């Protein structure tokens, strides 16, 4: 569903044709009616309905699309469908679509295709594109090189504004953005940037060298794509130039790709925080088997780790008086929640660049204070709850002052320890080159459970040793 | 730290002057040296060092800033500092900075200031700005109206490209973006959009009405700002026009503001998933007391809820044979993790728009299958672990086949139930108009703990009733 404005500026709802409607129109060969229905839609909307229509209609539907949309819709559909569409293409059709695609998108497609399809794509690309594709494919996983586009506007510093504008007019059709132009020397060393805004305002005879900003913030091909996306976010750029290690401009990353990278990284973080292996397909499109595969290793690992808590409980069961067992679930949960709060805060702060590994002492000092405040307040509440409700109100005679004191002290010590563990493990993971996000709730909970039981035992043993 | 390229295109590192350095240079009145050091920095970098220098230097430092940066740096500093800077301003200085700011930024500042400062800001704005500010302040919380900018380029459909370009040249300096221009009639009804790209390519005598795209995707002033940001993300726009309920263009939301909105919403979701009240300040700048306040209500609520599990355990303790207690931590943790996986997946899918409340049956059917697969596998592992390790290897005679069966069946039933609960509660919350993110790990864990204990009890009671 999409709303648009009609000629007198009223909102009207533009209903996206459903998969069934499209199938019917194709079956009845009402192609021009179908064309009319999709004319006002965006490529990404067409791509989403594409995934829903029956396979046997895909090829006809794809050929009905307005020519200027075809490549864009192709890029937006999922890999499985892309493969089917390619297989239905003649070589000529394939090479036409490839010509209309930006090379970074072609590389994204190639990375998902089986070898025989890759071969056909390369065969139907121009020799120049083939060289560039092969170059792009060689950049390390998750590097800026893998998300950059090589179609940008390059100017020289001796051009006038008028010359630059007519150059842009000539090449614009093939460039992903013309709003930031890059000034390089003959060896492609990046010298500065000029915005389309400044070109549009300037006098035609002005020199580019007078207009360009030489303080260029840039990324490098091997830099983490997340770091490049964060620069674009931080400085509010529309694009960031990417240079190789000799300072030569090799591509740009545009803001829409940066948004995708940030979203993807957030998805990954959130998945890991919930102890799930990240999947790239949307939830409803992921099969139950694949969801199972993404979840079972972590559940299994955590289940086995959690049996340690059982072993500790068994080891201590004989030593503890039975009434103390009643408070185990509450102590375990509270410790786990307290640790999760600290770990998720630290993971997110690391992820958005608010803290680095070097801030470890600042973080610990903060959590020591927060842990103390939380521990004291909840310890007091726990003491009140145990003595007033369990003992007085419910009249459980087994709940002595020593029991209340054990529970309250354990609440305090567990919360305090959980905060320290929760905040330090993500930093430790980062320091060791691991992903901090795996040190989130499930892992912290399992660890803190064992720790809280040990604390509980020693505090109880101490108190009852003294009072009994 | 920022890297830039020198004239021959080599990477050189541009070191940001530290707070101490800046303080020393100011004390020694070496203003031009300081000016030189900050000349190549971006406003957002200057703003970040701003927060670190001693208060007594702030006013001098701010006046040293290059004039064209002053407003931008001011916008990027935090509210506390902004207030101090404003208080040091003469009326004339204040009105100069206000003139250089975009109105959406002015409104953001106003929202954080005490009444007397707001009064001064309004007094020193032009009459026209004052009217617009008051209008912007009236939009509902979190609506598109609160993040839109009212400085955009407006064209009419009878203009020629040449006329449009000279209009842009005149007004560009005051507009946040000139890359998308908006075509309206005399009553400001939005008729279409024209990109700067198409204007730069077109012939000067061409009519705007021939160039403009009439299929405009837009937002409305009262629409949720997250929904507007998602449209910008989905379609890869640089800006989205915002219309009132009569289809009149009142502002635009730019991609950089959309990124901020998406990041803020993600921060909020992640905080809620970890049972923390979201805070707006970065972690290290949030006081221990404020972190405590953000965390304690949830910890308290969850601790009290968790005592229910203890009560259930106490109620069943007499009925269960002691050895069964050993498996309680493992059952609780596994149930909690299983539920968290499903709930976090559902929350994220809702948040990025992959699923809606109407997909509830698709979601449940998927989780039924995933839950079955996970439950069967982990039940089998649990049975093997209990019988082989606890009974055979560790020789615990109390661990009978009935105990193993109880544990394995409970693992299966708990995982299965936890998946259903975990996936359905976020959808239920959304349906009830609540935020799905609160239905994440901590809440689900507490709930599933109680459920898993009840399941464990009934299964054990059933099995032992039959076998003993």
Strand order of the largest sheet of chain A: 3-4-5
Major sheet characteristics of chain A:
3 strands, mixed
Taking the alpha carbons of the first and last residues of chain A, their distance comes to: 72 Å
**What is the average per-residue confidence, as pLDDT of chain A, rounded to a whole number?**
85
| Bulk shape of chain A | elongated
From the helix content, strand content and strand pairing of chain A, which structural class follows?
mainly alpha
Q: Which series of helices and strands of chain A comes N to C? A: EEHHHHHHHHHHEHEEHHEHEEHHHHHH
Biggest interface pair, residues each? A-B, 127 and 125 residues
Evaluate the radius of gyration of chain A: 31 Å
Which percent bin holds the helix content of chain A?
A: 55-70%
Oligomeric state of the chains present here = homodimer
Low-confidence stretches of chain A: none
Q: Estimate the strand proportion of chain A.
A: 5-15%
**How many E-type strands of chain A?**
8
């Amino acid at each position: 569903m999409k709303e648009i404005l009609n000629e007198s500026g009223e909102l009207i709802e533009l209903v996206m044709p459903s998969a069934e409607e499209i199938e019917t129109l194709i079956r009845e060969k009402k192609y021009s009616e179908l064309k009319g229905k999709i004319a006002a839609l965006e490529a990404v909307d067409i791509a989403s309905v594409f995934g829903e229509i029956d396979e046997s209609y895909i090829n006809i539907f794809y050929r009905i699309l307005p020519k200027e949309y075809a490549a864009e819709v192709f890029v937006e559909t999922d890999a499985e469908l892309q493969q089917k569409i390619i297989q239905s293409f003649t070589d000529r059709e394939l090479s036409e679509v490839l010509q209309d695609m930006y090379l970074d998108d072609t590389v994204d497609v190639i990375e998902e295709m089986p070898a025989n399809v890759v071969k056909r794509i390369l065969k139907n690309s121009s020799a120049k594109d083939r060289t560039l594709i092969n170059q792009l494919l060689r950049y390390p996983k998750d590097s800026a090189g893998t998300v950059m586009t090589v179609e940008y506007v390059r100017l020289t510093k001796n051009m006038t504004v008028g010359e630059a504008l007519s150059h842009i007019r000539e090449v614009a059709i093939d460039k992903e953005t013309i709003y930031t132009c890059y000034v390089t020397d003959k060896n492609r060393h990046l010298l500065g940037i000029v915005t389309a805004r400044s070109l549009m305002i300037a006098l035609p005879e002005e020199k580019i060298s007078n207009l360009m900003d030489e303080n260029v913030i840039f990324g490098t091909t091997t830099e983490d794509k997340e770091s490049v996306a964060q620069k674009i976010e931080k400085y509010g750029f529309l694009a960031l130039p990417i240079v190789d290690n000799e300072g030569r401009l090799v591509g740009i990353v545009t803001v829409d790709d940066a948004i995708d990278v940030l979203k993807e990284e957030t998805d990954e973080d959130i998945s890991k925080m919930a102890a799930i292996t990240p999947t790239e397909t949307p939830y409803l499109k992921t099969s139950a088997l694949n969801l199972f595969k993404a979840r079972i290793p972590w559940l299994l690992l955590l289940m086995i780790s959690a049996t340690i808590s059982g072993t500790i409980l068994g080891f201590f069961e004989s030593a503890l008086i039975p009434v103390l067992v009643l408070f185990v679930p509450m102590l375990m949960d509270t410790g786990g929640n307290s640790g999760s709060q600290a770990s998720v805060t630290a993971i997110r702060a690391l992820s958005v660049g608010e803290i680095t590994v070097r801030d470890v002492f600042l973080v610990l000092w903060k959590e020591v204070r927060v842990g103390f405040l939380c521990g004291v307040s909840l310890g007091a509440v726990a003491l009140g709850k145990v003595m007033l409700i369990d003992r007085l109100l419910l009249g459980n005679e087994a709940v002595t002052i020593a029991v209340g004191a054990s529970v309250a002290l354990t609440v305090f010590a567990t919360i305090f320890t959980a905060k320290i563990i929760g905040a330090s493990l993500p930093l430790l993971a980062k320091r060791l080159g691991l992903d901090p996000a795996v040190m989130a709730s499930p892992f912290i909970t399992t660890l803190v459970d064992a720790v809280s039981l040990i604390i509980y035992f020693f505090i109880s043993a101490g108190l009852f040793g003294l009072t009994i």
